[in-house]
Amino acid sequence: MTTSSQPTALRTALCATVAAVLSLGPAATATATADDDRSGGWKGEGGLTLTSEQNNAVDSYLAHARRAERTISVRVRAAAALTGAEVVGFDKRLKSPDSLKRKVAGTLVEQPGRNVASVLAGIGDAVRYTLQWGDTAYTSGVTRASGALADWGNESTKWSNTWGRASGYKGLNTGWRAPRSGQLFEVQFHTPASKHAQEATHRLYEEQRLPSTGPERKRELQREQDALFAAVPVPAGARSLAAPAPRPAPVPASA
């Protein structure tokens, strides 16, 4: 693609993706969960709880994430269209209320000095996406897709490349901040094999995080996860994938 034709291609992809996303309608909007109790608090698995005030704070955060998601989704799907990626699990792009509340409550237990506001400020995956390519297209696809997101004003806040690990999770998890809403969102870059391993280990990971899970069981769960990820092939060049360079801020127009 020539330099002169690239802006046209970007605009075309964005326009097509806007239409596709809008045709899907909004993501689910319910905030009440099965475990919200009559006091306004929340009770979850493994003895996790939130007070009424904490629960309301999480619900407010989720409402903001839902509003921001529509614009973020347009750009992520456009990046996928430009690079031939499959968007996996788009219908689960918003973390469920119970899942987010488990994460917040678990963090408050693990780090008792923190409050709910500080925990929510660090949540990077309430809005999340997965882009997937085959092994041969993976490295080029990631480079181009992440570059497009940066070009469109999204700030790279996290770049966790674990393809080079000797054991454990394999993949590339990235975090971004949307330019207008300031909403943090996650984009995971996978191959079919690494995505399959992630899904196969999810239940093990969730059990491992519970405060009620003992040390020996946690070690056993980690060994099971390591075995599944050890079978995942590493695409050529994946170990050296790096975050896109920060883009310069636009220069304000002179008065």
How would you explain this protein's 3D organization?
This protein is an alpha+beta fold and 255 residues long. The protein has a single domain, classed as Beta Polymerase, domain 2 (2-Layer Sandwich), CATH 3.30.460.10. 48% of the residues lie in helices and 13% in strands. It contains 7 helices and 7 strands. The strands form 2 sheets. The chain has a 5-stranded mixed sheet with strand order 3-4-7-6-5. Strands 1-2 form a two-stranded antiparallel ribbon. Strand 6 and strand 7 form a beta hairpin. The two termini are 37 Å apart.
At a glance:
With 255 residues, this protein is an alpha+beta fold.
List the helices and strands and how they pair.
Elements: H1 6-24, E1 42-43, E2 49-50, H2 52-83, E3 86-88, H3 97-110, H4 116-121, E4 128-132, H5 135-151, E5 155-161, E6 172-177, E7 184-190, H6 192-209, H7 215-230
Parallel strand pairs: 4-7
Antiparallel strand pairs: 1-2, 3-4, 5-6, 6-7
